[in-house]
Write a structure and sequence with these properties.
The chain is an alpha+beta fold and about 90 residues long. It has helices at about 1-20, 55-65; strands at about 40-45, 70-75, 80-90.
């Protein structure tokens, strides 16, 4: 009578092991691609030296930072600042 009990115990352990290895177990999602961050941008044209620290450019950029915007890039032509580009996660 002990053989059938041992067979049931082994079968039960096998079934439990299968559940432990299911796709939604602790290793699930390791091969799933990370979600892609989406961005929105604002481009400000610069006239003269409008965004210099001597002007209110720093205050304006700080205000944009409080709205979630971060500096991304500047565009210059022949050494002259032409645009300031800001970005933030798409809302």
């Amino acid at each position: 009578m002990r053989k059938p009990t041992a067979l049931v115990a082994v079968a039960l352990l096998f079934v439990l092991a299968l559940f432990a290895l299911r796709a939604d177990g602790p290793h699930a999602g390791q091969n799933a691609p990370a979600p892609v961050q989406k961005w929105e941008y604002q481009i400000y044209g610069v006239v003269g030296n409008e965004f210099s620290i001597a002007s209110d450019g720093q205050k304006r950029l700080n205000a944009k930072g409080m709205e979630g915007w971060e500096f991304c890039q500047v565009v210059s032509v022949d050494g002259q600042l032409k645009s300031v580009i800001l970005k933030r996660p798409l809302r």
